[in-house]
Amino acid sequence: MLPELRPMWWESGMGARAAASLGTVAIQLPRLIATALAIAWRADRTRTLTVGLATVVAGVSAAFGLLATQKVLIGLLAAGPTPQRVTSALPALIMVAAAAAVRAGVGIVIGYAQSGLAPRIEAEVHRRLLETTSLVELAAFDEDAFADDMERASRGTNAAVFLVDGAFALIAGLTGLLSVAVAVIVIHPLLLLALLVATAPTAFASLRAGQQRYRTYLAGSVRRRRLNLIHQLMADRKPAPELRTYGLREFLLGQFDRVMTAETRIQLDLARQVTTTTTIGSVTSGIATGAVYALLAWLLLQNSLPLSAAATAVIALQAASRSLATVTFQVDRLYTEGRHFNDYAEFMTRAAAEIPDTTGASNAGPLQELQLHAVTLSYPDRDTPAVDHVTLTIRAGQTVAFVGENGSGKTTLAALIAALRTPSSGHITWNGTRLTDLDPAAFRNRIAVVSQDFHKWPFTAATNIGMGDTVNLPDRDRIEAAARLAVAHDMIEELPHGYATLLDRTFADGQDLSGGQWQRITAARGFLRHSDLLIMDEPSSALDPRAEDALFQAIRDRQGHATTILITHRLANVRHADVIYVLDHGRLVEAGSHDELIAAAGRYAELFTMQARGYGEQQK
């Protein structure tokens, strides 16, 4: 399937709502409300309790206001002079005003509490997601399903806020309906049935129309993505030159017209369906409302209902309609957002299973000896192992090199040593203790990794280097010393703001660096830590000859007092290594010093000779 045709994250919740019957939605509502309240309670108990109590008070005041309104009407419609009737109705009128004031005040309290609750919910849910994803095994990110689940889970952080807001709004709507029902029962029990008959058709029609909209929206997902793609192709800067060079304007406009014509036709069909559904609901509700008015008239004629009660019933009917409109809207919203939050909750459960168990883990002491015992790593989507039964020993103070052709397993082997990946079989020990038995954070504080696939962190130059030791919070002198080792100091000083220069052009006054300059920053970050073990994976691939020579001199200076694993294709830079390990298709095929491997006339000698010959031919 083409990338632009893949289902998007926001459609999963809508799909669940479109597929669910109204009965299913009704059954799920209590669970969704309970989930929302639990989220809010964890985020801020005081505000959650405030909103809950205020919502109840609002409902009670609404019922009180309706009953007070009836008393006002009784006073005004009673026999006698007008001043006397007004005086008689005045206490009830004060109660109506008081109920209205309470509802207004409660509304302010609810708005204030919810405005403070929303950011706390988002912060807690989002932080929990980040805490979890930053602990999972690196191997989890290799799985497409994990990446898709994480994308949907990220939507769940916003869904949590919407879920809580929707739950409180739904509770408010239901409370309003309940208060009206209570007031109507007090006026006349028969009016409750009439109220249900008058409002139920509209509610059913609204929910049904919402389901029709969801289904049509999902069916049009491919068309919308195609329209967005065409918009990008015709309005963005990057494709603009080729669009003009090849005269693609008419072609793309033709694509737009075909897709838009289909979309317009479908939207017109939807409009007819929704109009039909809502019209039937409105007509049915209108007939039922007429029947309610007829019932009120009959009760009046039978002297079973005073005129004041009938007038109050009409007001109650209007209030019930407003509350019901809120309820039907929030039901759809709550179910949809609940589905998104379920994605979040399911991902958190799955991700938790990918987090290593550090219970009883040991601290890693200073490196004395690192050993690999028949270590194998197989990726799920490959037939052959990336690392195949490798056994080797690295001692403190040694400089060790991993060499081999592309795909030989060098980088994967380094990732295993750095505990970024877990062997499929075999094990690795640090001073005789398996890496899996060491505390991951304590172990990683003793190593530094300079990766060939480095990330360009959007921070200042100083921060980019200082990130190499977030435990000891390095000062400026340490940062500059590390930069000098990586031949980065002079380059950084030439930036507009020196070490304070932001290395991201998307921000104001930000700067971008060349590949070689970024590589120096990355190497400086590795030098900063003064680690027991420094792993450098292709640290000079983008450096100029002068910078490369200075960098490898800094690496050679570590020899004898700090341990270094060096991975590079430039074999002239590993001649000084104590031991050179040669890999081929994941297997360790040779090991020894440079002189020993040249004398053995094996794979290393072949690769070194080929490279040396190339340099010799360039010099001629």
UniProtKB/TrEMBL annotation:
GO-annotated cellular components: plasma membrane
Gene3D superfamilies on file: ABC transporter type 1, transmembrane domain, P-loop containing nucleotide triphosphate hydrolases
SUPFAM superfamilies: ABC transporter transmembrane region, P-loop containing nucleoside triphosphate hydrolases
PROSITE patterns, per the entry: ABC_TM1F, ABC_TRANSPORTER_2
SMART domains given in the database record: AAA
Compartments, as annotated in UniProt: Cell membrane
Membrane topology: Multi-pass membrane protein
Main location: membrane
A GO term, aspect molecular function: ATP binding
InterPro entries, sorted: AAA+_ATPase (IPR003593), ABC1_TM_dom (IPR011527), ABC1_TM_sf (IPR036640), ABC_transporter-like_ATP-bd (IPR003439), P-loop_NTPase (IPR027417), Type_1_exporter (IPR039421)
Transmembrane portions of the chain: 20-41, 48-69, 89-113, 160-184, 190-207, 280-301
Record domain ABC transporter: where: 370-610
Keyword terms, alphabetized: ATP-binding, Membrane, Nucleotide-binding, Transmembrane, Transmembrane helix
Record keyword Nucleotide-binding present: yes
Residues covered by the ABC transmembrane type-1 domain: 49-336
Name assigned to this protein: Multidrug ABC transporter permease
Organism: Catellatospora chokoriensis
